[in-house]
Amino acid sequence: MDPITIEVIRSALAYSAEEAGIALRNSAYSPNIKERMDHSCALFDPM
User: Fold this and answer.
1) What is the span of the domain harbouring residue 21?
2) Which residues are CB-neighbours of 38 under 8 A, at least 6 positions away?
3) Is the dihedral of CA 34, 39, 43, 47 positive or negative?
4) CA distance 45 to 47
């Protein structure tokens, strides 16, 4: 793959994880997540 395609895929995956974190923060009941923003989100390869 060429460097441009790799960067587009990398950016899309990073944005997906960021959006998952925003969704988690917006739907959380725990003050640790909602107020302190003490959470993380990641995407994993099933291999």
Assistant:
1) 1-47
2) 32
3) negative
4) 5
